[in-house]
């Protein structure tokens, strides 16, 4: 059963929501209890509906929910959950983003200081790479039959089984192995490389950096496998052509090493390494000025709103009730359109928002009180938070459904999970 659930969850992550998780996706027991209580309250007098079985509608409901979650996380990441956080959130800069990028992750800036540091990147963290034997596109010389090999990675062992049929070519089997390994989602990316009418399998670990107690990240063998052996040596799957290596850099002149191309500095900056520095040359990372930080925050806020609006609009032809959500989002934005226009923001005909950064920065620089000038942004983000919570709680509000019966007011049984019908959609065809 655990294998089935794992397969279901992996399918859900890769099909419906290839979005990164954030710290706002973790919740306390009290927060989860509040969500449950909200569901119970919402369903207390809600009518009964026929189950939704259309696959396109199911995908639409899950997609709405996930886009609502992403909008909520965007606003939360800007400090929108705090009373004055949205306007005070600082943003980081890098003097050369081809070498490294930085994100400010601190709750607030240390008083009386403007954190800044230098960085010189000596080497990037690299993954393990196995390049197999280059073979011609001719008939496989191995006997037809069922073969298997074992992969050891992250203290886990996986067995892969596949068949080789009569008359199959090397390239046919290599292509099948690429799909087999990629679809397994075990942390290894497989590709087929071709040179001079020859082809080979290339396996690359998703993880980077040298393991603490080993020199490589994954091993491949068929010495003790359950089916026929011989494919590892034939295709050269265990040929390590590049061992994993750690990132090497100088932080404020001090030598550092990490197995990843991403690290934090003083619980204030999240740094991602993107390139190698010229020898002896360093870059600077720090915090932007207030006006520039505000412009970045507004740009991210509008980006989150526009993504949600575009996601809802993409279903206008196939899901008629999506027009309700589009209309509601546009109504929220139009309520603040006058204030937006005076600070460089424009509501377009399709309901999305555009930003004129020069006008926005000018308004911020000329303002005697930035918090007062841009106070509408806090109200705007609060409205979006409320809407994102509502959609996340019950995306089925925007799905065409057939009502079976209305409940008798005041005398009914609570159906707390009725609004969360979409959560079972990801299990379709698995259980």
What does this structure look like?
This protein is an alpha+beta fold and 431 residues long. Helices cover 35% and strands 24% of the residues. It is built from 12 helices and 20 strands. It has helices at 2-15, 29-43, 55-77, 85-88, 170-184, 231-235, 290-313, 322-335, 337-341, 357-366, 370-373, 375-393; strands at 48-49, 92-94, 100-104, 116-123, 127-131, 135-136, 145-153, 156-164, 188-195, 198-208, 218-221, 240-242, 247-251, 254-258, 262-265, 269-273, 283-287, 345-347, 353-355, 403-405. The strands form 6 sheets. Strands 2-17-4-13-14 form a 5-stranded antiparallel β-sheet, with no helix packed on it. Strands 5, 6, 9, 10 and 12 form a 5-stranded antiparallel β-sheet that branches. α3 (55-77) runs antiparallel to α12, α7 runs antiparallel to α8 and α7 crosses α10 (357-366).
Would you kindly provide a brief summary of this structure?
The chain is of the alpha+beta class and 431 residues long.
Question: How are the elements arranged and paired?
Answer:
Elements: H1 2-15, H2 29-43, E1 48-49, H3 55-77, H4 85-88, E2 92-94, E3 100-104, E4 116-123, E5 127-131, E6 135-136, E7 145-153, E8 156-164, H5 170-184, E9 188-195, E10 198-208, E11 218-221, H6 231-235, E12 240-242, E13 247-251, E14 254-258, E15 262-265, E16 269-273, E17 283-287, H7 290-313, H8 322-335, H9 337-341, E18 345-347, E19 353-355, H10 357-366, H11 370-373, H12 375-393, E20 403-405
Antiparallel strand pairs: 1-20, 2-17, 3-16, 4-13, 4-17, 5-10, 5-12, 6-10, 7-8, 7-11, 9-10, 13-14, 15-16, 18-19
């Amino acid at each position: 059963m655990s294998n089935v659930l794992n397969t279901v969850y992996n399918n859900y992550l890769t099909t419906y929501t290839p979005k990164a998780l954030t710290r706002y996706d973790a919740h306390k027991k009290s927060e989860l209890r509040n969500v449950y209580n909200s569901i119970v309250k919402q369903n207390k007098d809600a009518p009964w509906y026929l189950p939704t079985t259309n696959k396109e509608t199911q995908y639409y409901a899950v997609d709405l929910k996930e886009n609502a979650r992403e909008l909520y996380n965007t606003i939360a990441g800007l400090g929108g959950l705090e009373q004055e956080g949205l306007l005070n959130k600082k943003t980081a800069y890098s003097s050369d983003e081809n070498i490294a990028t930085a994100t400010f992750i601190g709750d607030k800036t240390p008083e009386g200081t403007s954190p800044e540091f230098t960085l010189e990147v000596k080497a990037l963290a690299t993954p393990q790479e196995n390049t197999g034997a280059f073979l011609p596109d001719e008939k496989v010389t191995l006997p037809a039959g069922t073969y298997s090999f074992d992969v050891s990675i992250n203290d886990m062992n996986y067995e892969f089984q596949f068949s080789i049929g009569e008359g199959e070519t090397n390239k046919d089997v290599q292509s099948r192995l690429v799909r087999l390994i990629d679809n397994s989602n075990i942390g290894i990316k497989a590709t087929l490389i071709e040179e001079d009418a020859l082809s080979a399998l290339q396996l690359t670990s998703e993880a980077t950096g040298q393991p603490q107690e080993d020199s490589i990240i994954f091993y491949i063998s068929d010495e003790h496998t359950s089916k026929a052996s011989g494919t590892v040596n034939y295709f050269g799957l265990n040929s390590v052509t590049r061992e994993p290596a750690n990132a090497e850099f100088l932080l404020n002149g001090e030598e550092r090493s990490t197995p990843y191309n991403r690290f934090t500095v003083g619980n204030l900056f999240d740094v991602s390494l993107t390139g190698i520095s010229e020898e002896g040359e360093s870059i600077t990372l720090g915090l932007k000025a207030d006006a520039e930080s505000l412009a970045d925050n507004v740009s991210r806020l509008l980006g989150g709103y526009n993504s949600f609006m575009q996601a809802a609009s993409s279903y206008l032809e196939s899901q008629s009730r999506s027009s309700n959500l589009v209309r509601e989002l546009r109504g929220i934005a139009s309520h603040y359109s006058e204030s937006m226009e005076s600070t460089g923001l424009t509501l377009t005909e399709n309901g999305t928002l555009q930003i004129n950064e020069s006008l926005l920065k000018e308004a911020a620089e000329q303002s005697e009180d930035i918090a007062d000038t841009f106070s509408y942004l806090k109200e705007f983000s609060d409205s979006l938070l409320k809407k994102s919570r509502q959609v996340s709680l019950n995306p089925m509000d925007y799905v065409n459904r057939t009502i079976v019966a209305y409940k008798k007011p005041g005398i009914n049984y609570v159906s707390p999970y009725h609004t969360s019908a979409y959560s079972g959609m990801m299990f379709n065809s698995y259980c």
